[in-house]
Write a structure and sequence with these properties.
Blueprint lengths: L1 E6 L2 E3 L5 E9 L1 E12 L6 E7 L2 E4 L7 E6 L4 E6 L8 E11 L6 E4 L3 E5 L2
Parallel strand pairs: 2-11
Antiparallel strand pairs: 1-3, 3-8, 4-5, 4-9, 5-6, 7-8, 9-10, 9-11
Length: about 120
């Protein structure tokens, strides 16, 4: 099993910045897609950004403000969030697609979520 530990959430003012990190641990042989999702109260969970060997992808509302990156050697994925808006307020979840020593196929693993609140 893969365990994902997220950190970096908190309360910031509009226009502020936060950097989320997600560290994956366990018997991981390989990772492919890594990404961040978010869910605001009363809304469905949505993809914020993901990253693969082929590039990155962002939801339109965060393009130009958020940057996803990863450190493959450490199985860590980051989300740098700049120019934060109140609409960015949500619980942010890390997701990693990984090949482990327990299964012979890639599976999705989710973090517990970290709260991001943007308010003045």
């Amino acid at each position: 099993q893969v365990q994902l530990v997220e950190s970096g959430g908190g309360l910031v003012q509009p226009g502020g910045s936060l950097r989320l990190s997600c560290s994956a641990s366990g018997r991981i042989f390989s990772t492919s897609a890594m990404g961040w999702y978010r869910q605001a109260p009363g809304k469905q969970r949505e993809l914020v950004a993901d990253i693969t060997s082929g590039g990155t992808n962002y939801v339109d509302s965060v393009k130009g403000r958020f940057t996803i990156s990863r450190d493959n050697s450490k199985n860590v994925v980051y989300l740098q969030m700049n120019s934060l808006k109140p609409d960015d307020t949500a619980v942010y979840y890390c997701k990693v697609k990984a090949l482990t020593g327990y299964y012979s196929t890639y599976l999705d693993y989710w973090g517990q979520g970290t709260q991001v609140t943007v308010s003045s």
